[in-house]
Amino acid sequence: MQLDEREYTAPSVREVPLGFEAARKQVDRILASDTLRASDVLRRLLIFLANKTFSGEADRLKEYSIGLDALGKPATYDPRSDAAVRLQASRLRQKLEDYYRKEGQLDPIVIELPKGGFKIAWHTTGGDPVSVIPPLPAVAVEAVSETESSQLKKWRGLAIAATIIAAVLGLVTIKALSRPSQTPLVNPATGESTADLEALWSPLISSGHHLIIAFLNPLFVRLQRNGSPDILYRTGGNNSWNDAVSSPEYSILRRSLQNPVATPTFNMVERSNLVSTFVLSQFFGGRRGDISLARSDELSSEQFADSDVILFGALPIDGGSAPLPVRPALIVDKQGIRNLQPLKGEPPVYVDSPDHEPSDGEGLELVSMLPGPSGRTTVVTFASNRKWGVVGGVQALVDPSFTRVLVQKLREPSGKLPPYYQVVFRIKYRDGKLTSASYVTHRVLALTEVSVEAGISR
């Protein structure tokens, strides 16, 4: 699904056929300019503010969250005594003006950071600023030329249409269906009771906090070639710009193309994340009515503290600006699932299966039910070395048959389920569809002593 390319009407002037994609490309052009190339701080700030603007969140930005998430300030950062955010925003405004006085004189689009806020604005040269309408999540296929053959355009169009339909159906389901009654439901396909399913997801179903389903938005490198189609590419595991441009693949490709301008772009979402998002939207659509979707790289520490979050990928629990009040017992690494506190007879690593076709095979899945940074919210993560393993994990945890087995393993002698835990299970899938799921192990997580002293409890 590409970003919505609607036309906008600028106040008191002509129509300006300028949408988010055009603005994103202009931001990428500025990021690659000599004006900003030497300032990592201003580049990070522009990327952060642009992403927040395009996602419709800029109006809610606070100096504190910008300091933490864009400038890397510690959790003790106090905007009242430290004017770093305001100073860097002022520097960015000045740099944008410098850019358009020199390198960007002939650019058709002007990017600005108006005073008094943190929302970027853009307009055609000589035009009024374009009003901002939140876009739909961006979806694309990996590493394709922007000039496509007619056959590729046809298939791309079908994929976009299917994604739009899925997203609309998910949103309609969320709005249309009401919360369930307290009577255990029955799966009409199997006749099985979903009481265990409801119990497993109770922390999110009965929560009084907003629910965010966060999908991964991987970094791609855009190579801009004058007079030729741009090239987008990504190498696995490169989620930072520094990693991407220091990789051997980047050097080889850039030399072979005679050193074109390179800029970061985040306009793509993996298909496995889309499927997982849709499955969970369907599941929670009939159980609660306050769900939103977000890019995981744009989530702030404040959102984790104020909202329940489901995240596809591992969450950095130790360290960071807002560490969670528990310590993990299991983590995903390249070998599989590392057991940080092996019990007697347990291996230090639950070894993952060898490489196989991306959508066929098997893999280990780690699901973690965690408290948010403040202890008031719940964070659920699905982590795996296999992209389609994440889909299998999501599908398993909304299946009554598997959740019945899992709840039996998790249930404490008192009959209650532990509030925080991690579960490892093995997923088998074919063509991206779950064929079986089997329990491997689990760990109940306890709050850290510091968290208990701070009054965090369940």
Kindly describe this structure.
By secondary structure, the protein is α+β, with helices and mostly antiparallel strands. It folds into three domains: 8-124, no CATH class; 178-216 and 289-453, no CATH class; 220-265. It has 15 helices and 17 strands. It has helices at 20-31, 34-37, 40-54, 63-69, 84-101, 150-176, 195-200, 202-205, 241-245, 248-256, 271-285, 301-306, 387-396, 400-410, 449-453, and strands spanning 8-9, 15-16, 109-112, 121-124, 211-215, 220-224, 231-233, 261-265, 291-295, 308-312, 330-333, 336-339, 349-351, 361-371, 378-383, 421-430, 433-444. Strands 9-5-10-15-14-16-17 form a seven-stranded mixed sheet. Strands 7-6-8 form a three-stranded antiparallel sheet. Helix 3 (40-54) crosses helix 5, helix 6 (150-176) runs parallel beside helix 11 and helix 11 packs parallel to helix 13 (387-396). The longest helix has 27 residues, at 150-176. The radius of gyration is 23 Å and the shape is globular. The two termini are 40 Å apart. Residues 1-17, 128-191, 317-322 and 450-455 have low confidence and may be disordered.
Record keyword descriptors for this entry.
alpha+beta; seven-stranded mixed β-sheet; 3 domains; three-stranded antiparallel β-sheet; 458 residues; disordered N terminus; single chain
